């Protein structure tokens, strides 16, 4: 086997580290994308019995976006294992306690039917902010594109750009908003 083929084969089976920015992303749509990389569905050598998935690092999980009033209506089930230990917790309460939990639960649920999902979840690293430990940051070699573009906040647009933007009408100087 030539050296080029050997390197190509090594690169095919090697675990790549990907980073995904969760800022303003729907965790349930993002979970389907993250699942593909964790399980190795994006690789041509994928087989359900083959553990060829990659490692995914999620950042900014504190800034996820749920649709509509999902924050108030979506509830998560938890059971302690003891009689009467069942509880339902609303999404905003879960997110306040642990900002990484909603992403973790969404990815775990997206891998339904995968017999190795507990083992696969160990390759998912979730951080609430943009800070990643240096030992993890050294391994990251790829970035997963966000599903939804994050719009620029109005207070982050430079004043010169705001002044250059065409106006539909000019308000009179004595105009008062009521």
From TrEMBL:
One of its GO terms (cellular component) is mitochondrial large ribosomal subunit. It comes from the Eukaryota. GO terms for biological process: negative regulation of translation; translation. One of its GO terms (molecular function) is structural constituent of ribosome. Gene3D superfamilies: Ribosomal protein L13 (3.90.1180.10). The keyword Lyase does not apply. Keywords: Ribonucleoprotein, Ribosomal protein. CDD domains: Ribosomal_L13. Belongs to the universal ribosomal protein uL13 family. PANTHER family: LARGE RIBOSOMAL SUBUNIT PROTEIN UL13M (PTHR11545:SF2), RIBOSOMAL PROTEIN L13 (PTHR11545). This is 39S ribosomal protein L13, mitochondrial. It comes from Pieris macdunnoughi.
């Amino acid at each position: 086997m030539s050296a080029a083929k050997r390197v190509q084969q090594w690169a095919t089976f090697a675990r790549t580290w990907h980073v995904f920015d969760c800022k303003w992303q729907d965790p349930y749509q993002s979970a389907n994308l993250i699942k593909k990389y964790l399980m190795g569905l994006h690789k041509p050598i994928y087989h359900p019995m083959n553990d060829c998935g990659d490692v995914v690092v999620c950042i900014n999980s504190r800034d996820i976006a749920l649709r509509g009033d999902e924050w108030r209506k979506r509830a998560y089930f938890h059971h302690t294992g003891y009689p009467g230990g069942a509880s339902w917790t609303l999404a905003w309460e879960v997110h306040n306690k642990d900002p990484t939990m909603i992403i973790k639960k969404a990815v775990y649920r997206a891998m339904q039917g995968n017999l190795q999902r507990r083992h696969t979840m160990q390759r998912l690293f979730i951080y609430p902010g943009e800070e990643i430990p240096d030992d993890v940051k050294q391994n990251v070699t790829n970035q997963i594109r966000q599903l939804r573009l994050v719009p620029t906040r109005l207070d982050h647009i430079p004043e010169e750009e705001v002044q250059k933007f065409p106006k539909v009408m000019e308000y009179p100087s004595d105009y008062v908003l009521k």
